[in-house]
Amino acid sequence: MEQFPSTADPTKEEIAVIELRQRISDVILVDEKFDDDFYLLQWLKAQTLNPSKAEDMIRKSTKWRQELNIHSNLAKEFSPEFIKDFVVPFSKTKEGVPVAYFHAGKMDFKAGLITCGKSRWIQYWGMVYTQMEEQMIAFNKAQNTNETGRLTSDSICGIVGLVDAQDFSSMQLLDSDVLSCAVVNIKNLANYFPAIAATFVFYNMNPFFSTLFNAFKPFLTWPNLSLEVYGTDEKIWRERVLKIVHLADLNELESYWK
């Protein structure tokens, strides 16, 4: 529901949200997730507050999600063993912003593709992105509990992604399907989950993962996304990561892969 005060001129973000609501009234009736001004603003931010472009993006995303059966209940679609091998645990920054942790060096992408096939592999990562999106939605709602506040671009933020490439093997890149599916999955993240992340921090970047990273980097282009890349010098990357999260939280995230 619209929450804007009636005693002041609307902000440009509020005007854009009102128009977007009118454009996707049918979508809102089907999916209550879109009956949320902060969530709609996330789509608008990805399209520089253009309601027409945001509408097009929403309709393409909802169509894609329906066709691939994308939702957030991983356990409903995949075995516990599979999920364990490709788990993406969540934590929070020192300011409480959600953090998603990808240990890319420990994930055997080729084995994942062989186990479930391309379409299911793409579905899996779409469902992981949906979990990230839910974390983002919940945080932004909690941060905006004052219903008399004004809606601006600063009212919402994306989450933080930590990507650890330690132990990423050159063998991963010998299979063309690994590379092509990695590009498809990053495209899906950019096209169907707008502004879901505010920052991605890549570290332990060896030459092999750098090759993969360079293939999908051009698609990480949504507005306000910050990319940080660090090499294998632990002193440097750990100092940066520990400015984002508490040591205990980082240790807990890393423990999923020990």
Give a verbal description of the structure.
InterPro entries: CRAL-TRIO_dom (IPR001251), SEC14/CRAL-TRIO_domain (IPR051064). Residues 71-258 form the CRAL-TRIO domain. It comes from Allacma fusca. There is one protein chain. The chain is of the alpha/beta class and 258 residues long. The protein has two domains: 12-68, Helicase, Ruva Protein, domain 3; 74-255, CRAL-TRIO lipid binding domain (Phosphatidylinositol Transfer Protein Sec14p, 3-Layer(aba) Sandwich), CATH 3.40.525.10. 53% of the residues lie in helices and 10% in strands. It has eleven helices and five strands; from the N terminus they run ααααααββαβαβαβαα. Strands 1-2-3-4-5 form a five-stranded mixed beta sheet, sandwiched between helices. Helix 9 links the parallel strand 4 and strand 5 (226-229). Helix 1 (12-23) crosses helix 3 (37-46) and helix 7 packs parallel to helix 8 (176-192). It is globular and about 55 Å long. It starts with 11 loop residues before the first helix and ends with a helix.
Strands ordered across the widest β-sheet: 1-2-3-4-5
Tell me about the biggest sheet? 5 strands, mixed
Give the name of the CATH architecture of the largest domain. Answer: 3-Layer(aba) Sandwich
Distance between the termini: 45 Å
Protein name: CRAL-TRIO domain-containing protein
Domain CRAL-TRIO: 71-258
Organism: Allacma fusca
InterPro entries: CRAL-TRIO_dom, SEC14/CRAL-TRIO_domain
